[in-house]
Design brief:
4 strands; globular; four-stranded mixed beta sheet
Length: 71
């Protein structure tokens, strides 16, 4: 999993939309990997690897950014 973290890199964003941040992470994903952002209480997909976070507005909680293998 360290290989995917090196490939994708660490991403920390502020004052952009959560899904905009997800798209920025997706640009760094190799074939077969997808980027996601955890907003609710849903579990992360199997094999997910955390690669950063995004805070949309000051005072918001950070939303984790992750990548996972596409099925």
């Amino acid at each position: 999993m360290d290989d995917i973290k090196q490939t994708v890199g660490h991403h920390t964003y502020f004052n952009i939309g959560a899904f905009d941040a997800r798209e920025k992470v997706q640009r760094n994903c190799p074939d077969g990997w997808r980027a996601g952002v955890k907003i609710g209480s849903e579990p992360l997909p199997a094999g997910a690897v955390l690669v950063g976070q995004v805070k949309v507005h000051h005072g918001d909680p950070p939303y984790p950014l992750y990548v996972y293998p596409a099925a």
